[in-house]
Amino acid sequence: MCLALNFSFSQNNQETLLEVDGEAISAAEFIRVYKKNLDLVQDESQKNIDGYLKLFTEYQLKLKEAKRLKLDEEASYQREFKRYKKQLIKNYISDNEATDALVKEAYERSNIDLNASHILVLLKSNAKDTINAYNQVLALRKRALKEGFDNLKPLHNGKTIFVEDLGYFSAFKMVYDFESAAFNTPKGEISMPFRTQFGYHVVKVNDRRPSRGTLTAAHIMVNFKSKDSLIDPEERINNIYKKLQQGESFESLAKQFSDDKNSANKGGKLAPFKSGQLSSTEFEDAAFGLEHDGDITAPFKSAFGWHIVKRIDLQPVPSFEDSKSKLELQVKRDTRSKLIDEAMVEKLKSQYEITYNDEAKAYFTGLLNEDYYKRSWELPKDFKANTMLFKINKTVFTYGDFGTHLKTAERRYSGKNIGFSEIVDKEFHSFFKSTILQYREDNLEVENEEYAHILKEYRDGLLLFDLMEQEVWNKAAKDTVGLEEFYEKNKANYQWGDRVEVVIASSADQGHMKKIRKLMKKGKSQAAIKAKINNDEEQNVMFTKGTYPVNDPLLPSNFEAKEGVSKVYENHDAFHVIDVKSVLPAGQKTLEEAKGSVINDYQTEIELNWINQLYERYNITVNEATLQAVKAQLEN
């Protein structure tokens, strides 16, 4: 009997599982969402079907409330959803063959680092006179060939003419038109003029080299401006370097002294990077200049501070198969996508049933006159607006649609001398391309189930974000009276732990540390201790000061929080003596000090009360027979 029920149910998962105020939600929708999100659910109670059904029901209640409040009609919501839809659809409306060719080209280019310079004559996209700009950059090219590129750099004004060295770059670092021109220009030569969205360029290729690969490195950084008044940045980095030369651990010193907090706790380790990927040429050149894993640079400066870099690993460019999926995403996000669009249009022409009106182009060519160049052209009174221009499947697009397009395009031809038939041909192609792609977009939810599900998830998620912001998050942040009342009721939850104000002396040598401790107990200053313990060849002690919780990882795990000079501790592969200037005992946080935590907790309370109100506002009906069938299907 159970087998029969399960078989019967699996044939029709469209049975209603849940109704929220009469709106039916199918079992299939619940099963799809449950399976997709199961691994993401943190609360074990929500992994059982009853627990997840409660979560799913509350999600549906929030959607119902958002629509009751007409948040889906808000202009900001519509604008954001439309933006996302445009982005998402690019992954579904593309030609695979065109994409594959562009991915292969991008891979080949990613194996090369290109060093180039360029001359640009800036040109607005709607500029009337492009010949002058072309001739100007052509003349500059002739001068560069004759006088040398560097001799033209004084012409750079940063406004209309740019003469610049671009350094090394690879695929995706420049707009595609520029990238292609550069990669198609031999080393040492200057290209002929070419157009990009910025104007007319010529590019000189100074060098081609194989890609330097992907480097994994660690660094110790000292900011130019430190919060620690004891620190002189250059002296600090040189002292750290001395300690490295003395054999101390790079990772331990990074944990103790690096000002890059994102990497310090990982021993200074950075995410892998390629040449041209970082915003510091000095850093890249120093890092890639290391010959062997484990090699360390001398201290050097970048725009961000002082650094010491350690090479951990250098990987060559990965194989095409390993790179393909990432490159495909980059291609679809790049200006290369225009080429994919053109290929897709050709494919859609064969996929859809398309009927053309063969008389249309001649009709519109006859309508154009000199007013079109003056942006004063109007459609005639006897214009055949309802006549079919072309038809895609059963959807008709009319002369009126194309007439509107021609009127909008008028500005592009202002002051130009282009034949009317050429204008009509060009704009018909543009209109047809945008129309057929839009038709595909408008019908994609019906044609592609995966796309439909993803779009629905974002549509609902964006709506719920706006709802939660309005009903919960903003209320918690702006309701000062309610926040104060909540804080007063829950004061016990917001307490300071014990903290200490300290000066920490650190050394890799336990023997030095014992001497340092004696000097500290005698009240000697940091300067006096450093003068006695350090010398030009050896950096044997460094100091750090600040206020820290007693459980801060900078402090030893067995640290005793009491005033005075501590015993010698071992922590992070080094030895430390801690001069505790004062102990700040545990105590009540003020509302201002605990505000972030209080707001988060207050939001939780507001949300719980609000959800209870939604349960009261809307009628919930669960189809028990369908629920049992769902359980049987998911638990088998």
Description:
This protein has 636 residues and is α+β, with helices and mostly antiparallel strands. The chain is 47% helix and 19% strand. The chain is built from 22 helices and 20 strands. The strands form 6 sheets. It has a 4-stranded antiparallel β-sheet. Strands 8-7-10-9 form a 4-stranded antiparallel β-sheet. The chain has a 4-stranded antiparallel β-sheet with strand order 16-15-18-17, with helices on one face. Helix 4 runs antiparallel to helix 17 (449-478). The two termini are 15 Å apart. The model is unreliable at 1-12 (pLDDT under 50).
Question: How is this fold's topology laid out?
Answer:
Layout (H helix, E strand, L loop, with lengths): L1 H10 L4 E5 L2 E4 H11 L11 H20 L6 H15 L6 H15 L1 E11 L8 H17 L13 E9 L6 H8 L10 E3 L2 E12 L3 E9 L10 H13 L4 H8 L3 H4 L8 E2 L6 H8 L11 E2 L4 E10 L4 H14 L3 H15 L2 E3 L3 H8 L20 E5 L2 E4 H11 L10 H28 L1 H30 L1 H10 L5 E2 L2 E9 L2 H12 L4 H8 L8 E8 L14 E8 L2 E11 L2 E2 L6 H23 L2 E3 L1 H12 L1
Antiparallel strand pairs: 1-2, 1-20, 3-4, 3-6, 5-6, 7-8, 7-10, 9-10, 11-12, 12-13, 14-19, 15-16, 15-18, 17-18
Helix pairs in contact: 1-22, 3-17, 4-17, 5-12, 5-13, 13-16, 14-16, 15-16, 16-17, 17-21
Enzyme class: isomerase
InterPro entries: PPIase_dom_sf (IPR046357), PPIase_PpiC (IPR000297), PrsA_foldase (IPR050245)
Keywords: Isomerase, Rotamase
